Amino acid sequence: SSIATAELLNYYHKHRGIVLGLQQSTSYLGGIFWVWILNQSIPQLGIRVAQIKLAAICAASLLPACIFLDRSPGVGHKHPAFRPLQNRIPLKETIKYVWSLVRQRLRTISWKYQLPVAVLHCAMVLIHIGTLIFCFFLIPAALNRLDDGGVGTMIVAVCQGGEFLGRWAIFYLGDRWGKYVCSSQRCFNTLSAFAASTAGMIALFTRAKTSVSCVTATFLFGFSQGGLLVLGAACLSEMPDAAPGDRIDALAVAYSVGTFLLPPISARLMLLGERFEPLLWVACGAVSIGSVVVFLLSFWVEWQ
């Protein structure tokens, strides 16, 4: 009913971080479960399902994420708070409703930042198209060499498990301390830096010879993927003279770009084999050093 829909939308806008975290992270849990089930009977089919699932997530995300990340009532200035159209979602007019959301979303963003947001969304679409090509043409060659006892499935599942916790961490921090977005970014940057550093150390000293070290390094690297996307978010959200709502918009765009760019890169590094293992160390080090640098720079700006 329209009343139930209105109550759901009100709860969503009040706790948008938790709702989005649940919505996106459950896809990872479902992916881990189905890949594991299919791998028990048809290993190669399990790998293919993992590819299709990743491609489906990328394709679905072509709808800009910040359409649904509207500001809460009272946040920002000069712009009205988001109001659901007639407090209901018309099932027969889905396309019209989404287009209305897009127009309403653009009206709530300051004209000063509409062009950068549009450019970043175009870049996000190109990244997603590249990710689709990457999944179906580049990863299979590496996966064919890992078809022994489900090693490839284990890597995919563990990496997604780390990404699952990383998503929950950033969404919880953003929802718990929504008024202090910069503080939550610093916390997650620091957390990601330690996770990436630990993953790099394990890969460096053990060369992932044992299953424990391989699982640990893969899990921590998947978790630290959130650090790089927060790097971009920290830079974008520190825009001078920007209203809180505009910073949230920039954070949503950076999150969308980072989320779908980093998993295929990390998967490619892990699946290329020992010959390219140093690239994994470099990637972990880049996440770690970059997170710490942005963490310190954010305080340096405040100290000046």
UniProtKB/TrEMBL annotation:
The keyword rRNA processing appears for this protein: no
Highest taxon in the source lineage: Eukaryota
Keywords, sorted A to Z: Membrane, Transmembrane, Transmembrane helix
TM ranges: 18-37, 49-69, 113-139, 151-174, 217-236, 248-267, 279-301
InterPro entries found in the cross-reference section: MFS_trans_sf
Record protein name field: Major facilitator superfamily (MFS) profile domain-containing protein
The species this protein was found in: Stachybotrys chartarum (strain CBS 109288 / IBT 7711)
Keyword Calcium set for record: no
